[in-house]
Automatic annotation (TrEMBL):
InterPro entries hit by this protein: DNA-bd_IS481-type, Integrase_cat-core, IS481-like_transpos, RNaseH-like_sf, RNaseH_sf
Organism the protein comes from: Alicycliphilus denitrificans (strain DSM 14773 / CIP 107495 / K601)
Matches recorded under Pfam families: LZ_Tnp_IS481, rve_3
Ranges of residues in domain Integrase catalytic: 144-306
One GO BP annotation of this record: DNA integration
GO molecular-function term, one example from the UniProt record: nucleic acid binding
Feature: compositional bias, Basic and acidic residues: 58-71
Classification via SUPFAM superfamilies: Ribonuclease H-like
Residue span of region Disordered: 51-71
Protein name, per record: Integrase catalytic region
Length: 315
C-alpha cells in the first residue's frame, strides 16, 4: 500500500492511537499524536465499526461522477482510432466528445500513436496562396455490386460476378481543400470532360475561378478533347511526374478519405445506394468536417463562409 509522503500516521500508528484513546482519553491521545480531536474521533469510529481494515487509507475517488464521459462514447472513440485511423478532431466531431477527452481515451488504450502503414518518404509540403490557383484532379475505380461483398462480410464467396466497374472522379482545391466528386460510368475522356465542367461550375458557385489544373498522365487527361477544353477556358494544365503519385498528393489523400469515411465506412446494400450517399457526404466534408490543413475547421471557412446558408449549401 502506498502512503502519502505527508501522511502524519500509518495504519499501525492509527491502531496505537485508538488504543491510547481507550487508555487515557480522546483529547490527551490526540494531542500526543499531534492530531485534532476531530481526526482522532474519526479513526476511533472506524476502528469500532470495521476493526483494523477501517484504519487503511481510502480512495479519494468520488462515488458519483455525473459529468464523466459516457463509457460507450469512449469505447467508440477508441474503435474509430484503432480501426479507421481517424484523427482526434474527426473522432470528437463524430462521437460528440472534446478533442482532449478523445486524446486521453486513446492514450489509455495505447492507440495514441498508430504504427505506420508503410515506410515514409521525405515530405515536401506546399500550399497555394489563394483559392483557385490550383485544382487537383484524379480518379479511382470502384466495383459495382448488388449485395455487400467480402470487404464488410469477410466472406470472399459473397460477390457480384460480372458487375463491372464505375469511376469516382475527384477534384480538390489546393488552398481551401474544398472538394468536389462524382460517380461516373468510367475513366474515359468523355467522363473526364464532363466532370471538369461540373467541377468548374461548382467552384464558380462558391466564387472560385480556377487558374490551373493538376492531373496525372492518364489517357483521359492527355486526350485532345480534355486539352482543347482547358485551352478554350484559359486554364493551365500541369501534369505530375511519371510514376510519382505523391506529386498530386492532395488528390490522392482526398481519395483515401473518401474510401475510408464514405465508400467503405458503411454496409451499403448495393453500389447504387453507395453512389446516392456521395453528395451528402461531400456536403459534410466541405461544410462540417474538421480538416487538419485548415486548423481543424471545415474547408469552406477558407473561402470566407461561416455558419450555414441554405441557398448556398444546396447549389
Amino acid at each position: 500500500m502506498n502512503i502519502h509522503k505527508n501522511a502524519s500516521m500509518t495504519p499501525r500508528g492509527r491502531e496505537h492511537l485508538v488504543r491510547e484513546i481507550d487508555r487515557i482519553g480522546l483529547k490527551p491521545a490526540a494531542a500526543a499524536a499531534g492530531l485534532s480531536a476531530h481526526t482522532a474521533r474519526k479513526w476511533q469510529r472506524r476502528w469500532a465499526s470495521q476493526g483494523a481494515p477501517g484504519l487503511l487509507d481510502r480512495s479519494s475517488r468520488p462515488e458519483r461522477s455525473p459529468r464523466r464521459s459516457d463509457a460507450l462514447k469512449l469505447e467508440r472513440a477508441v474503435a474509430l482510432r484503432r480501426n479507421q485511423r481517424l484523427t482526434y478532431a474527426c473522432i470528437a466531431e463524430r462521437v460528440g466528445l472534446s478533442i482532449s477527452v478523445v486524446a486521453r481515451a486513446c492514450k489509455a488504450a495505447a492507440v495514441a500513436r498508430l504504427p505506420a502503414l508503410q515506410d515514409t518518404v521525405p515530405v515536401r509540403r506546399y500550399e497555394r496562396q489563394s483559392a483557385g490557383e490550383l485544382l487537383h484532379l484524379d480518379t479511382k475505380k470502384l466495383g459495382r455490386f448488388d449485395k455487400p461483398g467480402h470487404r464488410v462480410t469477410g466472406d470472399r464467396t459473397q460477390n457480384t460476378p460480372r458487375a463491372g466497374w464505375q469511376a469516382l472522379h475527384v477534384a480538390i482545391d489546393d488552398h481551401s481543400r474544398v472538394g468536389f466528386s462524382q460517380m461516373l460510368a468510367d475513366e474515359t475522356a468523355k467522363c473526364a470532360f464532363a466532370f471538369l465542367l461540373a467541377a468548374l461550375r461548382y467552384y464558380k458557385s462558391l466564387g472560385v475561378n480556377v487558374e490551373r489544373v493538376m492531373t496525372d498522365n492518364g489517357s483521359a487527361y492527355k486526350s485532345r478533347r480534355f486539352t482543347k477544353l482547358l485551352r478554350r477556358l484559359g486554364i493551365k494544365h500541369i501534369r505530375t511526374r511519371p510514376y510519382t503519385p505523391r506529386t498530386n498528393g492532395k488528390a490522392e489523400r482526398f481519395i483515401q478519405t473518401l474510401l475510408r469515411e464514405w465508400a467503405y465506412a458503411f454496409v451499403y446494400p448495393s453500389s447504387e445506394h453507395r453512389a446516392r450517399e456521395l453528395q451528402p457526404w461531400m456536403y459534410h466534408y466541405n461544410f462540417h468536417r474538421p480538416h487538419s490543413a485548415t486548423s481543424h475547421r471545415p474547408p469552406i471557412t477558407r473561402l470566407g463562409f461561416e455558419g450555414n446558408n441554405v441557398l448556398r449549401n444546396y447549389i
